[in-house]
Fold this sequence. Notes:
The protein is globular and about 60 Å long. It is 29% helix and 28% strand. By secondary structure, the protein is α+β, with helices and mostly antiparallel strands.
Amino acid sequence: MLNPTDSVTEGFLPAAARLGLAVTLLTDQPEAHERAYGRRDEDGADPRPFPALDIVPCAVRDYAEVISRIAADGRPTAVFTNSDHLQAQAALAAQYFGLPGKDWRAALRTKNKAELRRALAAAGPDVADPVWSAELATGQDPAALAGLDAPYPCVVKPREGVASEDVVLVADADELVRRCVEIRARRPGAALVVEEFLDGELRTLETLGDGRTLHILGAFRTELSPPPHFIEERLHLLPAPPPQPHTDQVLAQLRALGVGFGVCHTEYVVQGDRARLIEVNYRAIGDQCDLVLAELLGIPLFEHILRTHMGEPLPDDLGARTDGRVRMEYVMADRAGRLASAPPASVTERDGIRLDYRPLRGIGEEHPLHRTNRDFLGVLRATGTDQGRIDAAVAEFLAAHRWEIV
């Protein structure tokens, strides 16, 4: 792991405990994980259902170090990560120990956005509509893009980026070069990708497979902040089953990429009857969407994911509920500064609607404006079976509370 996440703290670690597993957590940030899992109650015990947990320092971006550190403790039962950045390393380690896991090549080509575009182009137009793209290689001068015959406006992003960090819409060649220079100032030498701007409704497809069976867990419609940045402001769970023909097209593109083992979060744009991939995140959807999805579906989602990596086949029918609806509402900072006031955590239920609000930034914390999900002040999870009531409850909650930055 890199930094602690809600997916691990509230999802995967409790699931490992329920499965009776002992966990060795390899991380390059051991102190952060010690703090995250060190909460105690008045009797000195940890109230959360964590498994036996050994936090071990490791250079986790180096697959050879990961393999070496695991080997020092003996053969593992499974190798797993939910980190965007470490899928290829975990896949290589699993393969080294002869354990079930993702194809490391699929993990690499989904993480590397330039390679993803090349792989989809090689699959042919019957599988995926061509998406114009170009790559600024590591260390290459952004000035080389000045003469690029790009379909403006277009999007520039880090080749291995996450969470819409440094993803920006550019209007012309001058702005493209300028934005690349700005990104490089924050990410020295980073490889960048320039892509055709795919305008349209943004959706996701959430899947879980064991290499034999591939289940569709659900699909979300995502609303973004206005350009030039692409920050997720809210998500709505689409009614089951996910809409066609887009779902089948996304699945065909995932097969072309070699994706089909474990959990995967795919983002695509709807353009008429075509689904055009934005990116494939070969891990669970984040920002607490995976937690609410497990709750809404009424299935042991995190246990299923871990069991898959332990070599256990998925059931042919997960037994998931199909009548649930959810709206994820993210309250965002609109400026840099110190959070002076904000509502506390709360859970309320009324008229069949459950509102679960979680603060993501503490009172008194001061932050710059990132223009990513690091600007989230809190997340409101609204669930029920009636979308109209959900939307009304969210509007009422937002109107009744204030978030003040000074």
